[in-house]
Amino acid sequence: MRSIPVKKSVNQLIFIVGALAVWEALAYAKVWPSYSFPSPHGVIESLYYGFKDQTFLIGIGVSLRRVLIGYVISVVLGIFLGMLLAWSKFLEDTVGHLVLSLQSLPSVCWLPIAILWFGLHESAIIFVTVMGSMLAVTQATKAGFDNVPRILSMAGRNLGAKGPQMFWHVLLPASLPYLLDGLRQGWAFAWRSLVQGEMLYGALGLGQLLNEGRDLNDINQVVAIMVLIALLGYIVDGLLFRTLDSSIRHKWGMAAATAS
User: Fold this and answer.
1) In whole angstroms, what is the distance from residue 170 CA to residue 86 CA?
2) Is the pTM here over 0.85, yes or no?
3) Is 37 left (phi over 0), alpha (psi -120 to 50) or beta?
4) Who's near 74: CB < 8 A, 6+ residues apart?
5) For the chain, which domains are there?
6) Torsion angle, CA of 62/68/73/78, rounded to 10 degrees?
C-alpha cells in the first residue's frame, strides 16, 4: 500500500526536525561550551564554506576514488577466496579458520604493516581498505555457496548442467542473497577502513579533514565531516545496494509478499 511509504517518510521527517530542534536548543542554552558542542547552524555554515572553497569537494573526490579502488579489489579477491573455501574442505579447515580469525581484527591494525610494506604512499591506505572489506565478502560468499539447497544442485545435474552451466544457472542465483549481503557489508567496512586509514596516515581526504578540524579545535568542521561521511555511506547503500537487492530478489522470486 502506498500509505505505508508515505507514513514512513513523514515519521522520518518529524524525527529529523525534532532532533534538530532539540540540538539547536541545547546549543543555544550553552549547556556545554561552544568549542565542545556545535550548533546546527554552525555545522551548516561549515558545510557551506567547505563546499564554497571546494575543500570538501576535493576531499570527497579523493576518498571516493580510493574506496572504489579498494572495494573493487576486495570484491574480486573476496569472491574468489570465498568460492575456493566453499569448494575445498581442506582450504575450509585451514585457510577458513585463518580468515575467520583475521576478520576480528580492526582494520586499523593493518596500517603499520601497510606503511612498512608500501611506505608513506596512497597504496598503504588502499591496502587497509582492502583488508577491512575483503574478509567480509569472503565469508558471505562461502556462506552463500554452503547454503545452496542440495535439491537445486541435484535438479541442475538432472537437467544436464555441468561446470560453468551449474555455476551460472544454479549455484550463483541461489547464493545471491548471501552474496549481496556480503557486498553490502564489504562496502560498509571499506568505507570505515578508508576513513581510519586517512586519519592516521594524514593523506588528503575526508579522514584528513576530520583530523584537521580536531587540530584547529573546530568542532563544527569535525561534525560537518562526520555528517558527510555518514551521508555518503547512506546514499551509496540506498541507491546501489538496496536497489540492487530489491531488483534481484524480485527477479528471482525471493521478495517477501506484501499485504494488499
Assistant:
1) 15
2) no
3) beta
4) 129, 130, 131, 132, 133, 134, 137, 186, 190
5) 41-251 (1.10.3720.10)
6) 130
pLDDT digits (tens, 9 = 90+) for 106-138: 888 898 999 899 887 889 999 999 999 999 899
**Stretch 177-191: mean pLDDT, rounded?**
86
Extract the C-alpha cell encoding 255: 521478495
At 38, list the grid cell: 556545535
Nearest-CA neighbor of 85 among 74, 96, 76? Answer: 96
Q: SS3 of 121, please?
A: coil
d(CA 28, CA 6): 33
Signed CA dihedral, 218, 223, 226, 228: sign only: negative
Q: Grid coordinates representing 93? A: 579447515
Distance between CA atoms of 190 and 182, rounded to whole angstroms? 12
Please give the Cα distance from 15 to 202 (Å, whole number). Answer: 36
